[in-house]
Q: What sequence folds into this?
């Protein structure tokens, strides 16, 4: 419980937004504000990542062209890091704005509701055996 609240407060407060409910704000508005703060943080994180990419690759290109212009080695880190930047952008602008997370949560909630009534949700899973125990 403590870890979850600490993580939630960290994620919410990264933009200096108050974690507590603003006066006159309903529960739904509070949840919307938290979601908006999370998405804004993700977009800021992508912007920082993109800026670092542009400056670092530009610096590498300058060094490459100044010392070894016959072989354009800076294209290799540009391509490799570019894949990471593109993936980060896709996650921020496509994944976060999709309903996939909501649908996954709803599916999981339906699955948990279908658990038989004789097995409470907080009961340990009797079928689960840690990998370290299988050899013993």
A:
């Amino acid at each position: 419980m403590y870890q979850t609240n600490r993580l939630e407060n960290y994620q919410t407060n990264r933009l200096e937004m108050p974690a507590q409910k603003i006066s006159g704000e309903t529960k739904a508005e509070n949840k919307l504000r938290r979601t908006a703060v999370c998405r804004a943080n993700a977009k800021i994180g992508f912007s920082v990542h993109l800026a670092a990419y542009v400056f670092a690759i530009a610096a590498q290109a300058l060094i490459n062209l100044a010392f070894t212009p016959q072989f354009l080695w800076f294209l290799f880190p540009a391509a490799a890091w570019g894949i990471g930047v593109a993936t980060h952008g896709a996650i921020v602008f496509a994944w976060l704005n999709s309903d996939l997370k909501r649908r996954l949560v709803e599916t999981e909630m339906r699955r948990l509701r279908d658990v038989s009534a004789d097995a409470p949700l907080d009961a340990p899973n009797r079928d689960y055996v840690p990998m370290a125990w299988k050899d013993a």
